[in-house]
Structures are given as C-alpha cells and as structure tokens.
C-alpha cells in the first residue's frame, strides 16, 4: 500500500469517528478509556509482530512530556466525544478543527516562532468563520451551542498534545503512540474508578460492537495508517490531505445522516477550513524553502 493511500484512508477513518462515538450509550470518559485501551493493545500486537523494542532510557528521558500529552489526550477525547453527543457531527468536527488556529496563535509564545502578518489574517478569517458557525446555532437549541463549546475545549486539549509532542525527542513511532494511549487508558481508569465507575455491562450489543470498532479501527488501524503514510509523504501533501478528515465528517453529517447545515454555517465552514488550509500551505512552503 502506498503512503498516500494509507494517509487518505487514515483521514477517512478519523473523519468517521463521530458516527461511532455519537451512538455508543456510554459516558464520554468511558468511551475514551476503552478506545485508548483497545487501540494500545492493537498497536502493541503490531509492535511485537514486527519484533521492535522499547528503549527504556529514551522513554524515561521523555517521561514528563509523555505524561502531560497523555493527560491532554484524555481531555481531548472526553470533550470531543461529548461534543458529538450534544450537537451534529458537522458542528463538532468544525469547532474541533479550530485547533490549528490555536496552534498558530500560540506558536510565537510556546515555540518562539516569528509573528507573521499573514498568520494574523488567517486567524481573523477563521474566527469570523467560527462566529458564523456558532451564530447559526444559538437561535436553535442550547444543546448545539454547548456541543460547539465542547468541541472548542477539545481543540484546546489537542493543541496541548501538539505542543507537548514537539518536546518528545528520540522516541519513534508507533512507540510514542502506544505509550500515550496506554497512559491515557491508565489515567482514565483512575478517573472512572473515582467517579461513576464502569457502565459497559449495562449497554447493549450494538454499543459494544461500535466501541470495539472505534478502538480497533480508529485508535488502532487509523493511527497505524496515519504514521505509515506520514513517513512517505512530504509536508505539503500531508497538509492538503489532512482536510479529508473534516470534509469526511461534513459528508457523513449532511449526506449520510441527514443532519442539516444552514447557509451561514456553510459559509463559516468555508472560512474556517479555508483559513487553516492556506495557513498550512504557507507554512509548508516556508519550511521547504
């Protein structure tokens, strides 16, 4: 399988995660736990099948970034899955895709990157797009509005994951992903034991099937294809193909599930995705130069 096809398939899988999470009758925290655990086990099997090894010294050198990133990953999935439950898949995906804009805003502070006027323009356009998306839902039910807020909180946690992984050194893939998924499962297990406990025995077969599929397909196969594809693609190709993720969510939301989008929301989606797209292209061009 080519690197491009692998990456495209991973983006389709990531874009379809809302269909799984939305209809699993479990709290978002427990969905995140089982997805982390199943995904870590699946990748661990692939890891041993390829006869690879963990380097203890490298893991210990990166222990604090790994812990912080795993905690942020927990928050990311909990709020993202809750966003899918509270609003449409399109709303959740679009608000969550505000994460690249947050990365642009915080990069000069966290990574000491130079402030570029074009980036400020992209951020302003994306903010207008987000305003249109939110504005189109505030006149309807409060649930949609809350769902969008959850999506934005998930985006904040994903931004922390992005920045924290910049400080992880010498840890190859899928080692990094296996460790972070395993740590996320551990932290979520502790959280569940301290709150409502596990409710998986109370759900139906359909939800259990969706949960297993979410763990294997999204966290397992999706991440495996994602990292395999990244190794064989240039930065600009990755930036462009990444937009298959939110577009898949929009197609599933509107054409398959029949969830409606207003004209104002469509305009907001174009502005938000367009601004982040141009920013990514601009970034990869500067890096190649």
Offer a few descriptive terms.
single chain, mainly alpha, 79% helix, globular
**Mean of the pLDDT scores?**
82
Strand content: under 5%
The share of residues in helices is: over 70%
Q: In whole angstroms, how far apart are the ends?
A: 30 Å
Explain this structure.
With 289 residues, the protein is an all-alpha fold. The protein has one domain. The chain contains 14 helices and no strands. Helix 5 packs antiparallel against helix 6 (89-96) and helix 5 (63-86) packs antiparallel against helix 9 (142-165).
The gist of it:
Helix content is 79%, strand content 0%. With 289 residues, it is an all-alpha fold.
Set out the fold topology.
Layout: H1 3-15, H2 17-22, H3 28-49, H4 56-61, H5 63-86, H6 89-96, H7 99-110, H8 117-138, H9 142-165, H10 175-194, H11 205-230, H12 235-241, H13 244-256, H14 263-288
Helix pairs in contact: 1-11, 1-13, 3-5, 3-10, 3-11, 5-6, 5-9, 5-10, 6-9, 6-13, 7-8, 7-9, 8-14, 12-14
């Amino acid at each position: 399988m080519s690197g491009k096809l692998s990456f495209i398939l991973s983006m389709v899988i990531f874009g379809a995660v809302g269909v799984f999470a939305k209809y699993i009758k479990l709290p978002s925290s427990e969905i995140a736990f089982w997805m982390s655990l199943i995904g870590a086990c699946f990748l661990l099997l692939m890891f041993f099948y390829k006869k690879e090894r963990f380097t203890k010294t490298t893991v210990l050198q990166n222990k604090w970034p790994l812990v912080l990133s795993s905690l942020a990953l927990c928050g990311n999935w909990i709020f993202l899955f809750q966003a899918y439950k509270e609003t449409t898949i399109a709303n959740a995906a679009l608000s969550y895709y505000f994460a690249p804009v947050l990365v642009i805003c915080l990069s000069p502070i966290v990574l000491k990157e130079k402030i570029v006027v074009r980036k400020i323009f992209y951020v302003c356009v994306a903010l207008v797009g987000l305003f249109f998306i939110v504005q189109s839902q505030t006149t309807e039910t409060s649930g949609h509005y809350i769902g969008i807020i959850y999506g934005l909180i998930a985006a904040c946690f994903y931004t922390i994951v992005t920045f924290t992984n910049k400080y992880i050194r010498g840890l190859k893939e899928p080692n990094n992903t296996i460790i972070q998924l395993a740590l996320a499962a551990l932290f979520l297990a502790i959280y569940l034991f301290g709150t409502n406990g596990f409710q998986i025995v109370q759900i139906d077969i359909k939800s259990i099937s969706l949960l297993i599929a979410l763990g294997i397909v999204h966290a397992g196969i999706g991440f495996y294809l994602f990292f395999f594809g990244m190794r064989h693609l240039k930065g600009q190709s990755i930036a462009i193909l990444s937009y298959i993720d939110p577009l898949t969510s929009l197609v599933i939301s509107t054409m398959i599930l029949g969830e409606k989008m207003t004209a104002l929301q469509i305009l907001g989606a174009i502005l938000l995705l367009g601004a982040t797209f141009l920013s990514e292209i601009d970034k990869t061009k500067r890096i190649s130069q």
